Amino acid sequence: MNEWYKKHLGFKQAGDNSILFEWRNTDTPEEKNYTVWSPFKNDTKYFEPSQKDYMINLRVENLEALMEELKKEGVQIASEIEKFEYGKFASIIDPEGNKIELWEPVDSEFTKLYEGNTIH
């Protein structure tokens, strides 16, 4: 899929098969931010426990506090917080069975990791 999007639409692929769209926040235009689009193989298990063939990824602030609140509200937790140099991730399942990955990015580290592989 990545090759198709690259060939026909000019998408640039990052090292991990993601397509990155760079954008700037109007409040902090000096900082680079990203929207990530990633196709997965048909047989991926990454979206489990959802039965859907896609996942929603949302950028959030203060993932720890958000996860605590979601647990209190009885939201189904699909994965606990994982930390990487470019951000923290956790997953929940919505009432329709969609997996939602929550991402608290460290944009400066994300920029270093993927510099030059973005769509502007």
What does this structure look like?
The chain has 120 residues and is α/β, with parallel strands linked by helices. It has one domain: 2-Layer Sandwich (Signal recognition particle alu RNA binding heterodimer, srp9/1). Helix content is 22%, strand content 35%. The chain has three helices and seven strands, in the order H-E-E-E-H-E-E-E-H-E. It has a four-stranded mixed sheet. The chain has a three-stranded mixed sheet with strand order 2-1-7, covered by helices on one side. The longest helix is centred in the middle third of the chain and has 10 residues. The protein is globular and about 45 Å long. The two termini are 20 Å apart. The model has no long low-confidence stretch (mean pLDDT 83).
What's the SSE blueprint?
Blueprint: H1 2-9, E1 19-24, E2 32-37, E3 55-59, H2 63-72, E4 76-84, E5 87-93, E6 99-105, H3 107-114, E7 118-119
Parallel strand pairs: 1-7, 3-6
Antiparallel strand pairs: 1-2, 4-5, 5-6
